[in-house]
Amino acid sequence: MAKEVRLTDDISNKKHFRNGVHASLPIVLGYIAIGLVVGVVAKTAGLTVLEVSLMSLLLYAGSAQLIVSSLIGVGASAPSIVFTIFLVNMRHLLYSASLAPHIRTLPLWQNILIGLELTDETFAVAANHLAGNRRAHAAWLFGLNLTAHATWIASTTIGAIAGRAIPNTHALGLDFALTAMFAALFVLQIASSSQMRVAITVGLVSAVVAVGGTLFVSSSWAIIVAAVMAASVGVLIERKLQWI
């Protein structure tokens, strides 16, 4: 059975904090491009620079922020925006559940902060780090998360300031940056043939459920159901492999 790795309570350790900052560099490079796009889209939708900055500070979710900007642009109601964001970010429940065993020994306030700072990309990097059964440190995780978040706030703010001066984002392909970066981080996690089989299985389950689900529900609901089912299958397979 694989040994469970837990984070140690050493948030003030500068060395491990710097290592976490270094681990965030691939995310930072992607967030710069994506943040500029989100900032431009939000500004075009009518948000002020301050509102864009606050949204990046409090919401901190690229796909959700793009959706918020789009819904505001079409005059959607506040309840519909909140409900949509809740559905889009439901995957974070799975992320948190996956990290929970590793951070349960940390103080409550650190657990809360880690949960608030969690994104697709930081989770992918953290999961890859913890999967190696290496000694994990809370300072490393905070270095990773805080650097990524600070970069995101700065990038979206700059994008909002630049506004319409930035060329068509579709022509530049920047709207695909979020998908491309997450795909690259996902590939980095596949370090063995067993992980490859898990990834292929999860991908097939997701595709079948997403396509088949459109026969019964809307495409947006089909994608959400597919994501939940695929993630659940992945967790079950990994737990089974740990006991082999």
Characterization of the model:
The chain is mainly α. The protein has 2 domains: 7-189, no CATH class; 192-244, no CATH class. 75% of the residues lie in helices and 2% in strands. It is built from 13 helices and 2 strands. The protein has helices at 14-23, 25-44, 49-58, 62-73, 78-88, 91-103, 108-116, 120-131, 138-162, 169-172, 177-189, 193-213, 219-242; strands spanning 7-8, 136-137. A two-stranded parallel ribbon has the order 1-2. It starts with 6 loop residues before the first strand and ends with a helix.
Write a brief structural summary:
The protein is mainly α. The protein has 13 helices and 2 strands. It has a two-stranded parallel ribbon.
Describe the secondary-structure layout.
Layout: E1 7-8, H1 14-23, H2 25-44, H3 49-58, H4 62-73, H5 78-88, H6 91-103, H7 108-116, H8 120-131, E2 136-137, H9 138-162, H10 169-172, H11 177-189, H12 193-213, H13 219-242
Parallel strand pairs: 1-2
How far apart the termini lie comes to 7 Å
Domain tally:
2
- Tertiary shape: globular
Q: Beta-strand percentage?
A: under 5%
- Unreliable stretches covering 5 or more consecutive residues: none
| Estimated structural class | mainly alpha
Using only C-alpha atoms, the radius of gyration works out to 19 Å
Main beta-sheet annotation:
2 strands, parallel
Mean of all residue-level pLDDT scores: 81
How many helices? The count is: 13
Count of strand segments: 2
- Helical content, roughly? over 70%
Order of helices and strands: EHHHHHHHHEHHHHH
Widest β-sheet, arrangement of strands: 1-2
